[in-house]
Specification:
This protein folds into three domains: 98 residues, Immunoglobulin-like; 116 residues, no CATH class; 138 residues, Glutaredoxin (3-Layer(aba) Sandwich). It has a five-stranded mixed beta sheet. A four-stranded mixed beta sheet has the order 4-1-7-8. The protein has a four-stranded antiparallel beta sheet with strand order 3-2-5-6. It is 43% helix and 25% strand. It has 389 residues and is of the alpha+beta class. Strand 5 and strand 6 form a beta hairpin.
């Protein structure tokens, strides 16, 4: 290959890098009796309450259609209303067409993926086989349980027996599904597992079964897919529990947009990390209750490092002014720094961590009464260590 050809080849690589490699056509069919005329679609786990990341699709003549372009095959979600919630369905964006059916289900509706690309079809085939093997028995038990519940008899001997039978059946279904996935590796399986971990939030006990399955079945499959990096990051964040080391460093920004080392603010100090947001009322309530604790111990060495996850900086500034925090706050605007993902809170809101001077996590509580003796003991240790130096 001559010099001119090499340059042409490299320019072609540069021109195509970052371009969509996956183009998917999504088609929805709305049955008679379904009144809803608008749905929302986004990549699973990336949008939260950020309206800009959701695509609104409108129904016309009983149908909707949308073209999605991504760099790789990813899991997407279609939902009734991304703010209010409601029924939803998951589907893979592949170089193919995805067909979604929306049908009435009593007073509600059902969203179902009925056709997709090769990886989606593998998952649909597994579901079809599972239904053929276990569906009739499951429906029979569920029907009887519904009848007992309607008559307030779930706690009767018959009800308890049926619940036990249902749990036993579910264990059989889970075992069969896991064995099927072990012999039939599916990219959908990997991405669905990531979704399950996402909704375990930052609870490592809830996430552990999914992590175990990941390491047993998927860790070495589809090695180039970015889901592996995201799951590794999730696992790291899940281990941020009392007694474990905290991050040595990561970045966020000031309200003026200047990037700063967050680690430089807490390393070597007894520090309370407050992850909050202007749109998270519970975070703000908990943070305000910690103000007296901070004011009591700040002269003794307690540091607060607050980081806000924001989509609107004006809302952030109004919240800071309204809540009258005696500390300043950094910002992770539009998840630029991935602070929440690092803490296994990508689809969550707030988190509170008390860090010792050596970087050990002392508590993840936001309760002032619970935190005070721990802070007091940490400050006393720091004073003794300082005298010994």
């Amino acid at each position: 290959m001559n010099k001119k050809s090499i340059i042409t080849f490299l320019l072609a690589i540069v021109a195509t890098s970052g371009q969509a490699q996956v183009k998917c056509h999504v088609v929805g069919t709305i049955a008679d009796g379904v009144e809803r005329q608008t749905f929302y679609i986004a990549q699973q786990g990336t949008a939260d309450d950020d309206d800009a990341k959701w695509t609104e699709v409108k129904v016309k003549d009983g149908r909707f259609a949308l073209d999605i372009e991504t760099e790789t095959t990813e899991m997407y979600e279609i939902i009734e209303d991304h703010r209010k919630g409601g029924h939803f369905a998951l589907f893979l964006v592949e170089n193919d067409t995805v067909c979604i059916s929306v049908t009435p289900a009593g007073d509600e509706m059902r969203l179902e993926v009925v056709k997709g690309g090769p990886e989606q079809e593998k998952w649909l085939e597994m579901q079809s086989m599972s239904k053929a093997l276990f569906g009739q028995q499951a429906e029979m038990i569920e029907s009887k349980l519904d009848s007992l519940e309607d008559n307030d008899l779930l706690d009767s001997p018959e009800g308890r027996k049926l619940i036990q039978a249902y749990d036993s059946l579910q264990e059989r279904i889970d075992a069969w599904t896991k064995a099927y996935k072990a012999y039939n590796p599916m990219l959908y399986g990997l991405l669905y597992l990531e979704v399950c971990m996402l909704y375990a939030y930052d609870d490592i006990n809830k996430a552990r079964p999914y992590l175990d399955e990941y390491h047993q079945l998927y860790e070495h499959l589809f090695p180039e897919h970015p889901a592996h990096r995201r799951i590794a990051l999730k696992e790291l964040g899940l281990r941020l529990t009392p007694g474990q080391p905290y991050f040595n460093d990561y970045e966020a920004a000031t309200s003026e947009g200047e990037t700063v080392s967050v680690g430089s603010l807490y390393r070597g100090r007894v520090s309370l990390i407050i992850m909050w947001a202007s749109w998270c009322n519970s975070c703000r309530s908990h943070a305000k209750l910690l103000i007296p604790l901070y004011e009591k111990y700040r002269d003794a060495g307690l540091t607060v490092v607050a980081i806000a996850r924001e989509w609107n900086l004006n809302s952030f500034r109004r919240a800071m002014e309204r809540d009258k925090y005696p500390w300043s706050s950094l910002v992770d605007y539009q998840d630029r720094y991935g602070v929440w993902e690092k803490h296994a809170k990508k689809n969550g809101s707030g988190k509170f961590l008390l860090i010792d001077r050596d970087g050990t996590i002392l508590s993840t509580s936001y309760d002032a009464q619970e935190l005070e003796p721990i802070i007091e003991a940490a400050i006393e240790r720091a004073k003794k260590e300082f005298k010994l130096q």
